[in-house]
Amino acid sequence: MVGPDKLDRYRAKRDFGSTAEPRPTRGRRRKGADPMFVIQEHAASSHHFDFRLEVDGVLVSWAVPKGPSTDPRDKRLAVPTEDHPMEYASFEGTIPHGEYGGGSVIVWDVGVYRNLTEHDGAEVPVADALADGHLSIWLDGIKLIGGWSLTRTGDNWILVKRRDERADARRRPTSTQRKSVLTGRTVDDLP
Ligand code: MN
Q1: 35 within 8 A of 141, measured Cβ to Cβ
Q2: Predicted confidence (pLDDT) at residue 107 exceeds the cutoff of 60
Q3: pLDDT band, residue 5 (cuts 50/70/90)
Q4: What are the tens digits of pLDDT across the range 111-166?
């Protein structure tokens, strides 16, 4: 059952009279569609990329300081953050300074994903994989295509590109492809 409880932490951190971020009503489970992912670049007091996966009607989220890499040798720290509402996937704008997460946000990449997590040859549901601390997914985005793994290490997680045909040690997309996939703006273009 998807209820508003999953988004209580999201609500509690924000003053919706001050921020233009979406005010969630409740989790929204979309039927029949592939689950989506979104990566938002966030020029907050500490610059990071927010990596979000649709799971059971909300966007399960991590803050990745260096952003995703296409090089399987890179282990990218991913700090779990509160679940976000589905409406957040299209949010771009500037959160006022002094508010939680103050700074500019763009949609850096968006698409759908497939669960690749298996145990003894059987698919492990995403929610179970997250509870177990290991998830493998195939991203079909605009900038990112291929397999990535998320593995829990203590309080944090590590995001790593899987060794597949889309691995590329030289691409560095977080540096070379900085424009929003929705509006063509970079975080520097926002006020
Ligand atoms: Mn953020």
Answers
A1: no
A2: yes
A3: confident
A4: 999 999 999 999 999 999 999 999 999 999 999 999 999 999 999 999 999 999 99
Quick count: other Cβ atoms within 10 Å of Cβ 56?
15
Q: Which residues pair with 85 in a beta bridge?
A: 58
CA of 110 to the centre of ligand 1 (A): 16
User: How many angstroms does the Cα of residue 29 sit away from the middle of ligand 1?
Assistant: 23
Residue 62 corresponds to which tokens in the numbers above?
A: 């991590």
In the structure, ligand 1 is a single-atom ion and the residues with CB under 5 Å from it are 42, 50
Domain ranges of the chain: 4-16+32-178
Q: What is the 23 CA–ligand 1 centroid distance (Å)?
A: 16
User: How far apart are alpha carbons 50 and 22 in whole angstroms?
Assistant: 16
Give distance in angstroms: CA of 60 to centre of ligand 1.
12
Cα(52) to ligand 1 centroid in Å equals 10
Q: Tens digits of per-residue pLDDT, 42-76?
A: 999 999 999 999 999 999 999 999 999 999 999 99
What secondary structure does DSSP assign to 116-156, as a single string? --EETTEEPPHHHHHHHTEEEEEEE-SS-EEEEEEEEETTE
Distance 61 CA to ligand 1 centre (A): 9
